[in-house]
């Protein structure tokens, strides 16, 4: 276990899901300024679904993310600005524009079995002089051997760091341990972990990842993120400090900004409710929720049964049409 952890704050990207992508330039400026003062090493700024995500399908941003990135860069002289890119949603042109505006890290995200689509984007990030991260989403959906294979691909493409991403908040601590341990034994590059709190184990999972050698960790102030949100950064900094693990972050400043700057902009506190708990329990991505709720109404079935069946059938993003099939099937039973 390392005694130094490098944190990436994701409230301005994953947290964008929680406020329906409505960040303003002023909010981004004050959040980044205060995270920078608290010495957070990396701050991710993008639409919740990454560069290019603003659309009717994923939710329209209030402000063009490039303006938000520009604002973030303009007030950070310590923190580096990172962007998320999902190949197919974001493009190489988006990445180049973000780099021109001052983004220093590209986090290239794919479904856990589709690392091969990250090649061009990771290679471009490196050519542009950015740090490149491979971000393996829905990591609970693949056996450990597959995860290792896919991570190895990202490493071979030039990723400096590969992340295990528990998108649905479905992993339990022993499962996180297995995954991080296997990656640690196989990869040369740093390993990261990104947790979600749908089963209330984001903090436990994060500590399990650190115990097995993950050194790059994501957190979100006030947990702001998709589903039940992410590992809470200010709590994580306090916990790691008690464990003798250094993050270099000023805890009081981080607590103050969470309380005084982030909390007031939240429509409601991030919580584990029936919906987010079901997402974690079923192991499905949070974007299915809205569709499942609609289908539940249409076919008079319980949306939890739909989500659990989708998880059982290992339905992934892009297969949303299956939600209707599953709901119709349940109604006919
Ligand atoms: C749709 C992108 C997604 O929110 C990335 C992420 O943070 C995750 O999979 O957890
Ligand atoms: Mn996430």
TrEMBL record:
It is an enzyme of class 4 (lyase). It catalyses: (S)-4-hydroxy-2-oxohexanoate = propanal + pyruvate; (S)-4-hydroxy-2-oxopentanoate = acetaldehyde + pyruvate. The keyword Ribosomal protein does not apply. Keywords: Aromatic hydrocarbons catabolism, Lyase, Manganese, Metal-binding. Substrate binds at residues 13-14, 167, 194, 285. Its EC number is 4.1.3.39. CDD domains: DRE_TIM_HOA. GO terms for biological process: L-leucine biosynthetic process. The keyword Lyase applies. The record marks 13 as: Transition state stabilizer. The active site is at residue 17. PROSITE patterns: PYR_CT. This is 4-hydroxy-2-oxovalerate aldolase. It comes from Oceanobacillus piezotolerans. The gene is dmpG.
